[in-house]
Amino acid sequence: MKVLVIGLGGVTNGGKTTLAEKLKNMLPNCDIISQDDFFKPESEVETDERGFKLYDVLDALYMDEMVTSIHNWMKSPASSGVVTEEPQKTCDNLKNVYILIVEGFLLYNYEPLNKLWNRRYFLTLPYEECKRRRSTRVYQPADTPGYFDGHVWPMYLKYKNELEENASMQVDYLDGTKSQEELLSYVYSDIIKELNKLRE
After folding, report:
1. List 31, 36, 59, 190, catalytic entry
2. Is 64 labeled as catalytic in the residue annotation?
3. What gap in Å lies between CA 123 and CA 108, rounded to an integer?
4. Residue 90 falls inside a structural domain
5. Structural domains counted in the chain
6. Least confident of 16-20, 121-125, 134-138
7. pLDDT for 67-81, tens place per residue?
8. What is d(CA 105, CA 56) in angstroms, rounded to the nearest whole number?
9. What is the CATH number of the domain that holds 34?
10. Can you tell which superkingdom this protein's organism belongs to (predicted)?
């Protein structure tokens, strides 16, 4: 049995969840773990001097639990409830390969996760487009006025810069303004190449 762990990280509202779900439907033995499922309750998330809840930092997440969940999945993917449908023709010899897509906004800045990735993708958006998309979403708790400019965007830039400065980190940056079809086609082909390497 072989396991492929794919990271799908990047900017808020960049299309990570949509892309992950579409890939799951196209790939054999594929499962998703979402970082959003590991947020601490609001009462445990720090508030800064401006009254902003600091959600866009690693401390707002139960990262140890997330790492444990990924390791548990890797130990026995078949028992995780992965639907083992008849894979598409491209994947005929891949019945014993399991794929985990981990999607979230802060995947590559946490050292214990960095040993796990087979491929890392990072969705980017320009400021205006990101702000526009974010304004159409409803969050619990809701974004307070100034929150995007005061916390969300600066944290995105901070963590993205950390990645870009880390020369050992192989990350494939994706333009989140491209159509979903284009992004899906690119990432899907790339993962199939990776699967074929595993098969050799």
Report:
1. 36
2. no
3. 12
4. no
5. 1
6. 134-138
7. 999 999 999 887 766
8. 8
9. 3.40.50.300
10. Eukaryota
